[in-house]
Amino acid sequence: MEKISGEVVQNLDATIGYGRFILSGALATVELTIFSCALALLMAFLAGLALLSRSYSIRAVARIYVEFFRGTSIFVQLFAAYFVLPLVGISLTPVQAGVLAIGLNGGAYGSEVVRAGIQAVGRDQTEASIALNLTRWQAMWWVILPQAVVVMLPSFGNLAIEIMKATAVASLVTVSELTFQAQMVRSQTGETAIPFLLILVTYLVIASVLTALVRLLERRFSRGTAGA
Protein backbone atom coordinates (compact mmCIF):
# COMPACT_ATOMS: atom_id res chain seq x y z
CA MET A 1 0.00 0.00 0.00
CA GLU A 2 2.80 2.41 0.88
CA LYS A 3 4.48 1.65 -2.45
CA ILE A 4 1.26 2.31 -4.37
CA SER A 5 0.64 5.50 -2.41
CA GLY A 6 4.16 6.68 -3.16
CA GLU A 7 3.69 6.05 -6.87
CA VAL A 8 0.39 8.00 -6.85
CA VAL A 9 2.07 10.97 -5.15
CA GLN A 10 4.97 10.80 -7.58
CA ASN A 11 2.63 10.72 -10.59
CA LEU A 12 0.62 13.62 -9.14
CA ASP A 13 3.78 15.68 -8.66
CA ALA A 14 4.86 14.89 -12.22
CA THR A 15 1.44 15.91 -13.58
CA ILE A 16 1.59 19.21 -11.66
CA GLY A 17 5.06 19.79 -13.08
CA TYR A 18 3.75 19.13 -16.59
CA GLY A 19 0.89 21.52 -15.86
CA ARG A 20 3.31 24.38 -15.19
CA PHE A 21 5.00 23.83 -18.55
CA ILE A 22 1.66 23.53 -20.33
CA LEU A 23 0.29 26.69 -18.67
CA SER A 24 3.33 28.63 -19.80
CA GLY A 25 2.87 27.26 -23.32
CA ALA A 26 -0.85 28.06 -23.27
CA LEU A 27 -0.16 31.71 -22.43
CA ALA A 28 2.34 31.93 -25.31
CA THR A 29 -0.18 30.27 -27.65
CA VAL A 30 -2.92 32.71 -26.65
CA GLU A 31 -0.55 35.66 -27.16
CA LEU A 32 0.44 34.39 -30.61
CA THR A 33 -3.20 33.76 -31.50
CA ILE A 34 -4.36 37.24 -30.49
CA PHE A 35 -1.65 39.12 -32.39
CA SER A 36 -1.81 36.81 -35.41
CA CYS A 37 -5.61 37.17 -35.58
CA ALA A 38 -5.30 40.96 -35.36
CA LEU A 39 -2.82 41.04 -38.26
CA ALA A 40 -4.88 38.52 -40.24
CA LEU A 41 -8.04 40.58 -39.77
CA LEU A 42 -6.30 43.76 -40.92
CA MET A 43 -4.80 42.08 -43.98
CA ALA A 44 -8.07 40.29 -44.78
CA PHE A 45 -10.00 43.55 -45.02
CA LEU A 46 -7.23 45.39 -46.88
CA ALA A 47 -6.79 42.59 -49.41
CA GLY A 48 -10.49 41.79 -49.61
CA LEU A 49 -11.40 45.39 -50.41
CA ALA A 50 -8.47 45.61 -52.83
CA LEU A 51 -9.78 42.56 -54.70
CA LEU A 52 -12.99 44.52 -55.32
CA SER A 53 -11.19 47.68 -56.41
CA ARG A 54 -11.89 49.21 -59.82
CA SER A 55 -8.14 49.64 -60.29
CA TYR A 56 -6.48 46.72 -62.10
CA SER A 57 -3.11 47.44 -60.42
CA ILE A 58 -4.60 47.30 -56.91
CA ARG A 59 -6.48 44.10 -57.73
CA ALA A 60 -3.30 42.56 -59.18
CA VAL A 61 -1.22 43.35 -56.07
CA ALA A 62 -3.91 41.91 -53.80
CA ARG A 63 -4.19 38.78 -55.95
CA ILE A 64 -0.41 38.22 -55.89
CA TYR A 65 -0.42 38.50 -52.08
CA VAL A 66 -3.35 36.09 -51.72
CA GLU A 67 -2.02 33.48 -54.14
CA PHE A 68 1.51 33.63 -52.73
CA PHE A 69 0.48 32.97 -49.13
CA ARG A 70 -2.19 30.43 -50.05
CA GLY A 71 0.09 28.64 -52.51
CA THR A 72 3.20 28.26 -50.35
CA SER A 73 3.81 26.34 -47.14
CA ILE A 74 3.44 28.18 -43.86
CA PHE A 75 6.65 26.44 -42.74
CA VAL A 76 8.55 28.11 -45.58
CA GLN A 77 6.89 31.46 -44.80
CA LEU A 78 7.93 31.18 -41.15
CA PHE A 79 11.53 30.29 -41.99
CA ALA A 80 11.67 33.13 -44.53
CA ALA A 81 10.43 35.61 -41.92
CA TYR A 82 12.97 34.44 -39.34
CA PHE A 83 16.03 33.50 -41.42
CA VAL A 84 15.73 35.35 -44.76
CA LEU A 85 14.52 38.80 -43.69
CA PRO A 86 17.70 39.42 -41.62
CA LEU A 87 19.64 39.16 -44.91
CA VAL A 88 17.92 42.36 -46.03
CA GLY A 89 18.35 44.09 -42.68
CA ILE A 90 15.05 43.12 -41.02
CA SER A 91 15.66 41.09 -37.87
CA LEU A 92 12.66 39.70 -36.02
CA THR A 93 12.33 37.91 -32.71
CA PRO A 94 10.87 34.38 -32.87
CA VAL A 95 7.48 35.67 -31.66
CA GLN A 96 7.47 38.51 -34.20
CA ALA A 97 8.38 36.12 -37.01
CA GLY A 98 5.62 33.74 -35.92
CA VAL A 99 3.01 36.51 -35.79
CA LEU A 100 4.09 37.86 -39.19
CA ALA A 101 3.99 34.50 -40.96
CA ILE A 102 0.80 33.22 -39.35
CA GLY A 103 -0.98 36.57 -39.61
CA LEU A 104 -0.14 37.12 -43.27
CA ASN A 105 -1.09 33.55 -44.09
CA GLY A 106 -4.42 33.87 -42.28
CA GLY A 107 -5.07 37.24 -43.92
CA ALA A 108 -4.71 35.69 -47.38
CA TYR A 109 -7.46 33.20 -46.61
CA GLY A 110 -9.55 35.82 -44.82
CA SER A 111 -9.45 38.16 -47.81
CA GLU A 112 -11.69 35.77 -49.76
CA VAL A 113 -14.11 35.74 -46.81
CA VAL A 114 -14.27 39.54 -46.95
CA ARG A 115 -14.71 39.62 -50.71
CA ALA A 116 -17.46 36.98 -50.67
CA GLY A 117 -19.20 38.64 -47.69
CA ILE A 118 -19.34 42.03 -49.41
CA GLN A 119 -20.56 40.51 -52.66
CA ALA A 120 -23.27 38.64 -50.72
CA VAL A 121 -24.93 41.95 -49.81
CA GLY A 122 -27.60 42.79 -52.37
CA ARG A 123 -26.75 45.34 -55.07
CA ASP A 124 -29.92 47.19 -54.16
CA GLN A 125 -28.18 48.32 -50.96
CA THR A 126 -25.52 50.10 -53.00
CA GLU A 127 -28.14 51.63 -55.26
CA ALA A 128 -30.10 52.87 -52.24
CA SER A 129 -26.91 54.42 -50.83
CA ILE A 130 -26.29 56.24 -54.11
CA ALA A 131 -29.86 57.50 -54.01
CA LEU A 132 -29.11 58.92 -50.54
CA ASN A 133 -26.13 60.81 -52.05
CA LEU A 134 -23.50 58.76 -50.21
CA THR A 135 -20.05 58.35 -51.72
CA ARG A 136 -18.83 54.87 -52.62
CA TRP A 137 -16.71 54.61 -49.48
CA GLN A 138 -19.45 56.03 -47.25
CA ALA A 139 -21.82 53.41 -48.63
CA MET A 140 -19.22 50.69 -48.01
CA TRP A 141 -18.51 51.82 -44.43
CA TRP A 142 -22.02 52.64 -43.24
CA VAL A 143 -24.25 50.34 -45.30
CA ILE A 144 -22.44 47.39 -46.91
CA LEU A 145 -19.84 46.36 -44.31
CA PRO A 146 -22.21 46.21 -41.29
CA GLN A 147 -24.38 43.74 -43.21
CA ALA A 148 -21.42 41.85 -44.68
CA VAL A 149 -19.77 41.35 -41.29
CA VAL A 150 -22.72 39.22 -40.15
CA VAL A 151 -22.10 36.94 -43.13
CA MET A 152 -18.34 36.88 -42.51
CA LEU A 153 -18.35 36.05 -38.80
CA PRO A 154 -18.82 32.24 -38.97
CA SER A 155 -15.97 31.96 -41.48
CA PHE A 156 -13.80 34.29 -39.41
CA GLY A 157 -14.50 32.08 -36.40
CA ASN A 158 -13.21 29.06 -38.30
CA LEU A 159 -10.19 31.08 -39.45
CA ALA A 160 -9.38 32.12 -35.86
CA ILE A 161 -9.35 28.47 -34.79
CA GLU A 162 -7.13 27.56 -37.74
CA ILE A 163 -4.75 30.37 -36.76
CA MET A 164 -4.70 29.12 -33.18
CA LYS A 165 -3.75 25.62 -34.37
CA ALA A 166 -1.18 27.06 -36.78
CA THR A 167 0.71 28.63 -33.85
CA ALA A 168 2.25 25.18 -33.35
CA VAL A 169 4.62 25.89 -36.27
CA ALA A 170 6.21 28.68 -34.21
CA SER A 171 7.86 25.97 -32.11
CA LEU A 172 10.23 25.48 -35.06
CA VAL A 173 11.81 28.87 -34.30
CA THR A 174 11.90 28.21 -30.53
CA VAL A 175 8.71 30.03 -29.51
CA SER A 176 7.70 28.43 -26.20
CA GLU A 177 4.08 27.73 -27.13
CA LEU A 178 2.14 24.56 -26.31
CA THR A 179 3.82 22.18 -28.74
CA PHE A 180 7.30 23.43 -27.86
CA GLN A 181 6.65 22.96 -24.14
CA ALA A 182 5.27 19.46 -24.68
CA GLN A 183 8.41 18.56 -26.62
CA MET A 184 10.55 19.98 -23.81
CA VAL A 185 8.74 17.80 -21.27
CA ARG A 186 9.19 14.75 -23.48
CA SER A 187 12.93 15.41 -23.96
CA GLN A 188 13.50 15.91 -20.22
CA THR A 189 11.33 13.09 -18.87
CA GLY A 190 10.83 10.65 -21.72
CA GLU A 191 7.08 10.88 -21.09
CA THR A 192 4.95 11.42 -24.18
CA ALA A 193 1.35 10.52 -23.45
CA ILE A 194 0.56 12.88 -20.55
CA PRO A 195 2.07 16.15 -21.91
CA PHE A 196 0.55 15.69 -25.36
CA LEU A 197 -2.79 14.73 -23.85
CA LEU A 198 -2.66 17.92 -21.79
CA ILE A 199 -1.94 20.12 -24.81
CA LEU A 200 -4.73 18.35 -26.70
CA VAL A 201 -7.18 19.36 -23.98
CA THR A 202 -5.71 22.88 -23.82
CA TYR A 203 -6.12 23.41 -27.57
CA LEU A 204 -9.72 22.23 -27.27
CA VAL A 205 -10.41 24.67 -24.42
CA ILE A 206 -8.92 27.62 -26.35
CA ALA A 207 -10.89 26.67 -29.46
CA SER A 208 -14.09 26.46 -27.39
CA VAL A 209 -13.49 29.95 -26.00
CA LEU A 210 -12.93 31.32 -29.51
CA THR A 211 -16.13 29.66 -30.72
CA ALA A 212 -18.11 31.14 -27.82
CA LEU A 213 -16.73 34.63 -28.53
CA VAL A 214 -17.65 34.39 -32.22
CA ARG A 215 -21.17 33.25 -31.39
CA LEU A 216 -21.54 36.17 -29.00
CA LEU A 217 -20.42 38.57 -31.73
CA GLU A 218 -22.83 36.94 -34.19
CA ARG A 219 -25.76 37.53 -31.84
CA ARG A 220 -24.80 41.16 -31.20
CA PHE A 221 -24.25 42.00 -34.86
CA SER A 222 -27.43 40.19 -35.86
CA ARG A 223 -29.44 42.24 -33.34
CA GLY A 224 -27.79 45.43 -34.59
CA THR A 225 -28.57 44.82 -38.25
CA ALA A 226 -32.08 43.63 -37.41
CA GLY A 227 -32.70 46.87 -35.51
CA ALA A 228 -31.33 48.90 -38.40
Descriptive notes:
This protein has helices at residues 2-51, 56-71, 74-84, 94-120, 123-131, 136-166, 178-189, 193-227. The chain is mostly helical. The protein has a single domain, classed as Orthogonal Bundle (MetI-like fold). The model is unreliable at 1-10 (pLDDT under 50).
CATH class label: Mainly Alpha
Largest sheet: none
Please report the number of helical segments: 8
What is the radius of gyration computed over CA atoms, rounded to a whole number of angstroms?
22 Å
Mean pLDDT: 84
List the uncertain runs. 1-10
The CATH architecture can be named as Orthogonal Bundle
Can you count the beta strands?
A: 0
Helix/strand order, N-terminal first: HHHHHHHH
**Strand percent estimate:** under 5%
Number of self-contained structural domains: 1
The general outline is: flat
Assign a percent range to the helix content. Answer: over 70%
CATH homology-level superfamily: MetI-like
Query: Structural class, please?
Result: mainly alpha
Distance between the termini: 70 Å
**CATH topology tier name:** MetI-like fold
List the helices and strands and how they pair.
Blueprint: H1 2-51, H2 56-71, H3 74-84, H4 94-120, H5 123-131, H6 136-166, H7 178-189, H8 193-227
Task: Please summarize what this structure is.
By secondary structure, the protein is mostly helical.
What key phrases describe this protein's structure?
228 residues, 84% helix, mainly alpha, flat, 8 helices, disordered N terminus, MetI-like fold, single chain
